[in-house]
Specification:
Strand content: 5-15%
Structural class: alpha/beta
Shape: globular
Strand order of the largest sheet: 3-2-1-4-7-6-8
CATH architecture: Alpha-Beta Complex
Number of strands: 10
Distance between the termini: 53 Å
Number of helices: 9
CATH superfamily: Spore Coat Polysaccharide Biosynthesis Protein SpsA, Chain A
Order of helices and strands: EHEHEEEHEEHHEEHEHHH
Length: about 350
């Protein structure tokens, strides 16, 4: 062992699911911001199903220096019951994200969505004493915003500001893991729901097997609107009958800064504090640049946050073209066919 090495240190990783080429624009920016710009010390694992094309796999395998990005083939998860309550039909695919619990070659994993932009290094998450240093089995995640500001008809009726976990929070407490107020059993269920864009977890094949069994047998499964995150909120809720003492540690919004929070919850939002922005709902790369021909600022209430993504995209593109050391490398033909093809560039 060389000087400075610590063989007892936990092996950590970020993990995200990728099933289609059309997700590559988001992944390129996320990977660059996480691994290059803000220099995470831990690799990004791409959980890939058979749906991911060979070309996309080839791009991923060579885009970053060896060991920084790892492709893991996984089997999809589909419940045996028929979903009747999904908020979006595409959510049939999100159960497969839970395969992150099978990444047992790592001792600590952060499950992340690829429609994110890292604005500050967040490796400190892997040292969270509540998630990784407390008796029992824990996950860490931030709240789902249940305000439903867009009045989406398929969202639950009880999703209103009064039932949102973010509503009673305020700065500076809301931005710190040590001061953020945790919900308890008296908290209404909507205010205990999580957003699964970022979930800290300890991989365990036993837990994975229990999850699959529950997904195929729990009568609540067909009614979940947001499958994986509704399931996790229930599976890890403390219950007297649960001998494994499963729990959720609610994290500050800044690690999963849902873009709508900037408008809906100014009580907790600070542009400089937002560490990892999550581009839920409309994606900036499909809307086009704020102020552009397709996406004028007056029509885009999220123009400022979307502008951050486009600025990061320009940084990725410039570094790629210039051949900057350590940056993402993608051949021009692949970039046009598999990245720009799925973007609105006007």
């Amino acid at each position: 062992m060389s000087i400075g090495d610590d063989s007892s240190a936990p092996r950590c990783a970020w993990a995200t699911l990728l099933t289609s080429e059309h997700l590559l624009p988001g992944l390129m920016v996320f990977a660059h911001s996480l691994l290059v710009q803000h220099a995470s010390a831990h690799p990004l694992v791409i959980m890939a199903t058979a749906k991911l094309s060979p070309r996309a796999r080839s791009i991923l395998s060579s885009m970053l220096p060896s060991g920084r990005l790892i492709i893991r083939d996984i089997d999809p998860i589909y419940p045996t019951s028929i979903a009747t309550g999904l908020a979006y039909t595409r959510f049939n695919e999100v159960w497969t994200k839970l395969r992150a619990f099978s990444l047992t070659e790592f001792s600590r994993v952060a499950l992340v969505d690829s429609d994110m932009l890292v604005r500050h290094n967040m490796d400190d998450l892997f040292s969270d004493p509540f998630v990784f240093g407390t008796e029992g089995e824990w996950i860490g995640a931030s709240w789902a915003c249940t305000c439903n500001p867009n009045r989406i008809a398929t969202y639950p009726e009880e999703w209103i500001p009064a039932n949102c976990g973010f509503t009673p929070q305020c700065l500076p407490e809301a931005a710190s893991s040590s001061t953020i107020v945790q919900p308890d059993e008296s908290t209404p269920r909507p205010a205990r729901l999580i957003n699964s864009g970022l979930v800290l977890l300890t991989p365990s094949q036993a837990t994975m097997d229990e999850m699959v069994e529950a997904i195929n047998t729990d009568p609540r499964i067909p009614e979940y609107r947001f499958p994986d995150q509704d399931f996790l909120a229930d599976f890890f809720s403390p219950q007297p009958s649960n001998p494994r003492q499963r729990n959720i540690r609610y994290l500050p919004y800044k690690y999963n800064a849902l873009k709508k929070l900037r408008i809906v919850h100014p009580n907790i939002w600070d542009d400089e504090v937002a560490t990892n922005v999550h581009y839920i709902l409309d994606k900036p790369w499909t809307l086009g640049r704020p102020g552009g021909r397709v996406n004028t600022e007056g029509k885009d209430p999220d123009a400022v946050v979307h502008g951050w993504w486009w600025s990061a995209f320009d940084d990725v593109q410039k570094a790629r073209v210039d051949g900057a050391k350590g940056c993402i490398k993608v051949a021009e033909e692949d970039w046009k066919d598999c990245v720009e093809k799925y973007m609105t560039l006007d």
